[in-house]
């Protein structure tokens, strides 16, 4: 009963934190935690606009940076990219492979694309540095969001100054996976639990608001990947009030979001944020 009340309260807070915006009648989301930064979680209505065009909505003069996402845990900075920034995105074959970008200077726009995976935008309220991360189940298992936090800390950020928005993604109640996958994703939360699938899942199911939900099919469970990311952030010292999870499921909201699990189409929506670097 208490857990249900807490869950509904948190959902209400999330709803109040996320806001619909429009550009030429097209809808996109913003998060109040990042309100000091030009940013957006764009919907399927913006298909097939790429970051070079979408940046005009956020900050037209910003340099655009994106990577070739490979479901890993590599996080790069603009100076580490093989391809220089360009508004011409006709050739993407030489993009650097990574799933996260952390800015180094003012007016750098970093982007992540997703369908059911989690787009994560991070901002440092003190320095103005930002990051964009693509966190699928494989990247989450490899702790890509904590790696992005590590990169920010290396560049001078303090944990207390970070604000993190986990955008629209497939919700746990509809994301069926094997127990093996669920254990791989949640293993990072229990470094002392060993490698046995059943032991890891048993530990995960004891967590309040567990990321592991039951499924009627043997050998399957439902997995809340965004909840795992939030728990990983908690483990590295991020407070709950520094994180907001979008109250939208890509699978269950076909009017706004592409979902590969639902439609089996290779279409994505983009999420981006622009660094400010105050005082630089």
Largest sheet: 6 strands, mixed
- How many helical elements? 8
Helix percent band? 25-40%
Derived from helix and strand composition plus strand pairing, the structural class reads alpha+beta
Model description:
The chain has 280 residues and is an alpha+beta fold. It has eight helices and 15 strands. The protein has helices at 2-17, 51-58, 137-141, 144-154, 179-186, 197-204, 225-235, 260-263, and strands spanning 18-23, 26-31, 39-42, 63-65, 75-76, 100-102, 108-114, 118-124, 130-135, 162-166, 176-178, 212-213, 220-223, 243-245, 269-274. It has a six-stranded mixed sheet. The chain has a six-stranded mixed sheet with strand order 5-6-9-8-10-14. Strands 11-13-12 form a three-stranded antiparallel sheet. Helix 5 crosses helix 6 (197-204). It is globular and about 50 Å long. The protein starts with a helix and ends in a 6-residue tail after the last strand. 45% of the residues are buried.
How would you sum up this structure in a few lines?
The protein has about 280 residues and is of the alpha+beta class. It has eight helices and 15 strands.
Sequence-ordered SSE layout with sheet pairings:
Elements: H1 2-17, E1 18-23, E2 26-31, E3 39-42, H2 51-58, E4 63-65, E5 75-76, E6 100-102, E7 108-114, E8 118-124, E9 130-135, H3 137-141, H4 144-154, E10 162-166, E11 176-178, H5 179-186, H6 197-204, E12 212-213, E13 220-223, H7 225-235, E14 243-245, H8 260-263, E15 269-274
Parallel strand pairs: 4-7, 5-6, 10-14
Antiparallel strand pairs: 1-2, 2-3, 3-15, 6-9, 7-15, 8-9, 8-10, 11-13, 12-13
Helix pairs in contact: 5-6
């Amino acid at each position: 009963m208490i857990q249900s009340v807490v869950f509904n309260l948190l959902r209400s807070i999330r709803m109040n934190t996320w806001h619909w915006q429009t550009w030429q009648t097209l809808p996109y989301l913003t998060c109040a935690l990042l309100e000091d930064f030009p940013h957006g979680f764009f919907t399927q209505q913006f298909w097939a606009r790429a970051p070079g065009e979408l940046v005009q909505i956020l900050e037209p003069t910003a340099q655009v940076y994106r990577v070739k996402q490979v479901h890993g845990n590599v996080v790069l900075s603009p100076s580490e990219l093989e391809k220089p920034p360009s508004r011409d995105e006709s050739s993407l074959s030489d993009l650097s492979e990574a799933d996260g970008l952390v800015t180094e200077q003012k007016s750098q726009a970093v982007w992540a694309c997703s369908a059911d995976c989690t787009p994560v935008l991070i901002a440092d309220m003190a320095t103005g540095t930002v990051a964009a991360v693509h966190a699928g189940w494989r990247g989450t298992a490899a702790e890509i969001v904590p790696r992005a936090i590590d990169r920010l800390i290396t560049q001078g950020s303090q944990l207390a100054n970070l604000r993190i928005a986990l955008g629209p993604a497939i919700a746990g109640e509809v994301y069926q996976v094997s127990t093996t996958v669920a254990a791989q994703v949640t293993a990072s939360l229990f470094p002392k639990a060993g490698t046995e699938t059943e032991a890891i899942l048993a530990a995960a199911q004891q967590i309040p608001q567990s990321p592991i939900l039951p499924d009627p099919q043997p050998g399957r469970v439902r997995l809340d990947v965004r909840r795992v990311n939030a728990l990983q952030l908690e483990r590295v010292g991020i407070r709950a009030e520094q994180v907001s999870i979008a109250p939208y499921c890509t699978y269950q909201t076909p009017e706004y979001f592409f979902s590969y699990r639902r439609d089996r189409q290779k279409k994505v929506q983009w999420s981006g944020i622009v660094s400010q670097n105050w005082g630089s």
